């Protein structure tokens, strides 16, 4: 069996042994210095001023939209665009915050929303924000999307949970938006079992994210920021101040286990990105030589950080054929993200308007992916090449 993911962690045995020692010796396991250290180190890796750690990637998305609501940068009834090829937790917070979700089609040639797709949607709908999903290690033309959003005064947000480490000539994916979210779920580029992060360069948003993360109080703020909030809200009693709640929030705090694992796994991230890119480029040669597949465009991408190998067949019938071939070879496969999110049961319950999304429908009906882990062996890579080859198909 070649699974989608092989281990919970990189350097599995060493990490589990180190985690056991940490749990036995740590003075506390609730949010503390390990989490703060991971935030600093991740912000440095990503090259952003603020990084706020959460208990999951889904929580990061929810907290980001709640923080923007609290800051009144988004208001109830505002239309928020999103990549139609996405995960449920990109769209559900839009609904939960009283915003109006508007899908933007994605191109089969990149698996991502492109500037032309956003421009087409903006011709008919005024968007207050665009929450783009950088899908499966790939990305759209983020520099052009960024400029289009700037000109049209659209708040650009990036879900970069699937493209950590991917870069364009203009910079890292996750650094084009006002804010970006990341996931450290098992099977992603790096694992803390569960965990997520929001990055931004905006100090007000960074501060509000910490308030949202912790029930609306100020305990996770730097001392001067906490004093400022207390003055602003006229909370003068120090005894009561630790239990004052300043805005809407949740309990989305991570534990010190998340912080410890994040710091440890971050050590391996750069080398693992390079291994995964090397695997992808090798298998891409077979993909591109097989006329059954549509090639994916990556000329605008400098570094491709891919934890899976997406495959786009020319027809649904060909997809069925190749899914059978992979299954017979013991290779685990799955659909591309959640497909066209408009077709998910929850979406039809809460959203009435339907948009024509031919690109995303093509990806859903003709696409699948299999895992790309740093632990793939030479024998396994050859098996994958045989599965992708066009010779002898029925």
Description:
The protein is of the alpha/beta class and 394 residues long. The protein folds into 2 domains: 12-263, Type I PLP-dependent aspartate aminotransferase-like (Major domain) (Aspartate Aminotransferase, domain 2, 3-Layer(aba) Sandwich); 269-388, Aspartate Aminotransferase, domain 1, CATH 3.90.1150. The protein contains 14 helices and 12 strands. The strands form 3 sheets. It has a 7-stranded mixed β-sheet, sandwiched between helices. A 3-stranded antiparallel β-sheet has the order 10-12-11. Strand 2 (79-83), helix 4 (88-96) and strand 3 form a beta-alpha-beta unit. The radius of gyration is 22 Å and the shape is globular. The two termini are 23 Å apart.
Task: Outline the secondary-structure elements.
Elements: H1 12-25, H2 33-46, E1 50-54, H3 57-70, E2 79-83, H4 88-96, E3 100-104, H5 115-122, E4 129-133, H6 142-152, E5 155-159, E6 167-168, E7 171-172, E8 179-183, E9 196-200, H7 203-213, H8 223-232, H9 238-241, H10 256-289, E10 308-312, H11 316-328, E11 333-334, H12 345-350, H13 358-366, E12 367-371, H14 378-388
Parallel strand pairs: 2-3, 2-4, 4-5, 5-8
Antiparallel strand pairs: 1-9, 6-7, 8-9, 10-12, 11-12
Helix pairs in contact: 1-10, 2-10, 3-4, 3-7, 10-14
């Amino acid at each position: 069996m070649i699974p989608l993911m092989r281990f919970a962690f990189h350097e599995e045995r060493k990490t589990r042994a180190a985690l056991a020692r940490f749990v036995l010796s740590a003075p506390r396991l609730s949010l503390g210095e390990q989490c703060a250290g991971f935030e600093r180190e991740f912000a440095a890796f990503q090259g952003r001023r603020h990084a706020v750690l959460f208990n999951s990637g889904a929580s990061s998305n929810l907290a980001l939209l709640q923080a923007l609501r609290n800051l009144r940068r988004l208001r109830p009834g505002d239309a928020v665009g999103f990549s139609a090829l996405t995960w449920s937790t990109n769209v559900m917070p839009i609904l939960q915050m009283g915003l109006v979700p508007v899908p933007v089609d994605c191109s089969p040639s990149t698996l991502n929303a492109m500037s032309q797709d956003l421009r087409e949607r903006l011709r008919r709908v005024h968007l207050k924000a665009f929450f783009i999903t950088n899908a499966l290690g790939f990305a759209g033309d983020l520099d052009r999307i960024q400029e289009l959003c700037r000109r049209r005064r659209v708040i650009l947000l990036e879900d970069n949970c699937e493209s950590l480490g991917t870069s364009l000539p203009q910079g890292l994916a996750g650094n084009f938006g006002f804010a970006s979210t990341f996931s450290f779920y098992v099977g992603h580029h790096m694992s803390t079992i569960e965990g997520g992060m929001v990055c931004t360069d905006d100090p007000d948003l960074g501060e509000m994210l910490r308030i949202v993360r912790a029930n609306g109080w100020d305990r996770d703020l730097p001392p001067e920021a906490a004093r400022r909030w207390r003055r602003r809200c006229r909370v003068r009693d120090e005894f009561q101040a630790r239990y004052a709640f300043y805005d809407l929030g949740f309990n989305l705090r991570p534990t010190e286990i998340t912080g410890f694992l994040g710091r440890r796994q971050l050590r391996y991230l750069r080398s693992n990105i390079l291994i995964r890119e090397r695997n992808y480029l090798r298998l891409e040669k077979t993909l591109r030589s097989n006329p059954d597949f549509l090639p994916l465009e990556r000329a605008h991408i400098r570094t491709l950080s891919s934890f899976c190998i997406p495959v786009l067949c020319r027809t649904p019938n060909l997809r069925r054929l190749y899914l059978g071939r992979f299954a017979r070879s013991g290779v685990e496969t799955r659909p591309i993200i959640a497909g066209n999110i408009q077709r998910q049961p929850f979406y039809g319950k809460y959203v009435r308007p339907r948009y024509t999304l031919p690109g995303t429908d093509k990806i859903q009906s003709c696409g699948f992916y299999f895992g790309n882990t740093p632990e793939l062996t030479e024998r396994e890579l050859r098996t994958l090449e045989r599965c992708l080859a066009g010779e002898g198909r029925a």
